[in-house]
Design a protein that fits this description.
By secondary structure, the protein is an all-beta fold. It is about 0% helix and about 55% strand. Strands 2, 4, 5, 6, 9, 10 and 11 form a seven-stranded mixed β-sheet that branches.
């Protein structure tokens, strides 16, 4: 079993930056793809970024492309989401997710508890 813990959320003014972290604990040798999602109350969860185990393959939703960067430190079993040029539309609860080793097919096995990001105009 793998446990994911997000940190780094908070409040920022429009145009500001934040870096979220997702630390994995447990059977991390079984950890594959890691990803970030976000959700606003009343809206569907949005898959915004994803990174392969090796880090050489990434995905970004159009809504965050160019502004957000996903990375991971395999030695620390941690994934990061660097967010820049934040707008009020980026305010949401951000969740970290991960798949077991092997094909992920967007069916994530592990989820964090979420961290709130608030952006004021």
């Amino acid at each position: 079993q793998v446990r994911l813990v997000e940190s780094g959320g908070g409040s920022v003014q429009s145009g500001g930056s934040l870096r979220l972290s997702c630390a994995a604990a447990g059977r991390t040798s079984n950890l594959g793809v890691m990803a970030w999602f976000r959700q606003v109350p009343g809206k569907e969860r949005e898959h915004i970024a994803q990174i392969s185990r090796s880090g050489d393959s990434t995905y970004y939703a159009d809504s965050v492309k160019v502004r957000f960067t996903i990375s991971r430190d395999t030695a620390k079993n941690t994934a990061y989401l660097q967010m820049r040029s934040l707008t009020p539309e980026d305010a949401a609860v951000y969740y970290c997710a991960a798949c077991k080793l092997g094909p992920c097919l967007n069916r994530f096995d592990y989820w964090g508890q979420g961290t709130q990001v608030t952006v004021s105009s």
